[in-house]
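Morning F.,

Quick status update on the modeling queue. The single chain you submitted on Monday has been processed. Sequence for confirmation:
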Amino acid sequence: MSSNELKRAKRRVRREVLAVRDRQPPELRAARGAAIADRFLALPEVTSARSVLVFWSFGSEVPTAPLIERLVARDILVALPRIADGELEIVGYRPGDPTRSTSFGAEEPAEGSTIPPDELDVIAVPGVAFDRAGRRVGYGGGFYDRLLRRTDATPIALAFAIQVVDGVLPAGGTDVPVAAIVTEAEVIRIPDLNSRSTS
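Structure tokens below.
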């Protein structure tokens, strides 16, 4: 598949899955998001983690604000991504710290100390669509793929079950798969990527 064909295939998946995700009523999204947070927090990688990078949810994504609060309550170092010079930098965050709006609708830390990616234990990964081999279609910027190549942290996707597609997603050589996908219905483990996993 050529680069242009890959981009077109990903755009098609993105459009189709976002349309389904966007149709979820807010109350259902919140309830499913709470179930996802419960499953994520019960993972052995998370219960033993000292530091977790969480994305700031926007639009119809899995809501992450309650998850951030619960991680902080466990005395886990929580970080948020911030875009700087076309890459993601990792910034420590606690609820109430100042943030600023990004061009795509999420919030990012307005200030705070940066954290080297290799000091992260777990990365909660956003995305539009996932398959059961850990492939991911994101929003098209490649930010998380580049970040995941700079760290040994365990990448765990947070997604609604409707975002997990049957079959194989289009993927290129620079796309980095996740080690697990947490939905409101199940935890999907990707065996080849679970060297740290205990379950």
